[in-house]
Amino acid sequence: MKGDWANRLLELDASWSRRLQIASQPGFLHGLEAFLSHSGDSLFVLLALALEWWLGNADWKSLAITLAIGVGVTALAVLLVKLAVRRPRPAGDWGQLYRKTDPHSFPSGHTARVFMLAVVTLGLGPPWLGILLAIWAPLVGLSRVILGVHYLSDVLAGALLGVVIGLGVVWLA
Asked: Which of 1, 83, 127, 157 can bridge 107 by disulfide, Cβ–Cβ 3.0-4.6 Å?
């Protein structure tokens, strides 16, 4: 039965996600995960892009504008999918700001955003920065599951969405 198969997948996703959660365990790892998670916040990403534009030469300014457009496109795509799917976030206490301002978890907007940044920078930016962002992106995504604000499938879908948008931005640029 189709419904049973889908429910079983959702149960597996929730089970695997719970195994990764450490949100209730304070300590160094929790602090590191919180830092990584917040590093993908729109506000911090847009501030970094504004600094890149303000302090950079013409090449950096162009990259900053391209990335900012990518952030906007990614935000719109994530919002549309979240409104269509409306999957509630996992239960938990960490990340109350996210839970109150955006109760939907699928797909992960943080993950989509950082994967888009990594793909665009790998395609258009300096290789060292692209590699750095390609290492950072999965860490941000994983931190969202570890802290209990997303399921593993939310992060995988966000990564896929970010890669597709990133490839589209590179192609258009």
From this structure: 157
pLDDT tens by residue, 61-95? 999 999 999 999 999 999 999 999 988 888 777 66
Q: Where are the domains positioned within the chain?
A: 2-172
φ, ψ for residue 104, nearest 5 deg: -100, 145
d(CA 70, CA 66): 6
pTM beyond 0.85, yes or no: yes
Neighbours of 79 (CB within 10 A): 13
What gap in Å lies between CA 96 and CA 111, rounded to an integer?
A: 18
For 14, residues 6+ apart whose C-beta sits below 8 A from its C-beta are 90, 151
Quick one: 2-172 is in which CATH superfamily?
A: Phosphatidic acid phosphatase type 2/haloperoxidase (1.20.144.10)
Cα–Cα dist 12/152, whole Å: 10
